[in-house]
Amino acid sequence: MEQVTEIDHPVVKRYLSILRDKNTETAPFRRAMGTIGTILAAEALTDLPLQEYEVETPIQTATGYKPAAEVFVIPILRAGLSLVDGIISFMPDAKVGHIGVYRDEETHEPVNYYHNFPGGLKGAYTLVVDPMLATGGSGSHAIKFLKENGADNIRFVSLISAPEGIKRLREDHPDVPIITAAIDEKLNESAFIVPGLGDAGDRYFGTL
């Protein structure tokens, strides 16, 4: 699927199995999220530009590399926080912003209740992070809001995606690549991903 990357990796499959298991407790659930977050970040930043510089090794001068663009991580609260540690362990210099979105009970439209972004969104590699891409409503809203605030190089990073959510993001934001660890079957009548893993935020924060 154009602009959609589903990571096919044995380690990802192993940790996804741990995350899907309803008997997995909070600590191993968090560790698995961290590992997959690191792998997702590596995939999302494969085209990060680099700047060369000289490094003195104990033997001789060598060519070193450092990022030539800033990386911003913007989790959609609160579940998006579950992937942040894994991402910034891979990219420790990344700046982290936040966006909170809820669905209005009357209009059924997404509404911001909080946002805090680093300065300089334009030109930065901006990773919008949400572990479950379900309907795509919150993700699409967050991307639109970031674009309105100057972001022009956005990638959407999710753990598990439903076809319905992918379709919504592709229609609303065809310029935004989607990086995910798994594309599941569908949404159920309650808009949970099937087979999914339940509520990622509750399982990560231990608030079941």
Can you characterise this structure?
The protein is an alpha/beta fold. It has six helices and 13 strands. The strands form three sheets. Strands 1, 4, 5, 6, 7, 8, 9, 10 and 11 form a nine-stranded mixed beta sheet that branches. A two-stranded antiparallel ribbon has the order 2-3. Strand 10 (154-161), helix 5 (163-172) and strand 11 form a beta-alpha-beta unit.
A few lines on this structure:
Helix content is 31%, strand content 31%. By secondary structure, it is of the alpha/beta class.
Distance between the termini: 35 Å
Enumerate how many helices there are, as a single number: 6
Strand content: 25-35%
User: How much is the average pLDDT?
Assistant: 94
**What is the chain-wise order of helices and strands?**
EHHEEEHEEEEEHEHEEEH
Determine the structural class based on helices, strands and strand pairing: alpha/beta
Q: What is the radius of gyration? A: 18 Å
Please state the oligomeric state of the protein chains shown. Answer: single chain
Report the count of strand segments. Answer: 13
Indicate the percent of residues in helices.
Answer: 25-40%
> Which outline best applies?
globular
For the largest beta-sheet, the strand count, sense and barrel status come to: 9 strands, mixed
**Spans of at least 5 consecutive residues with low confidence:** none
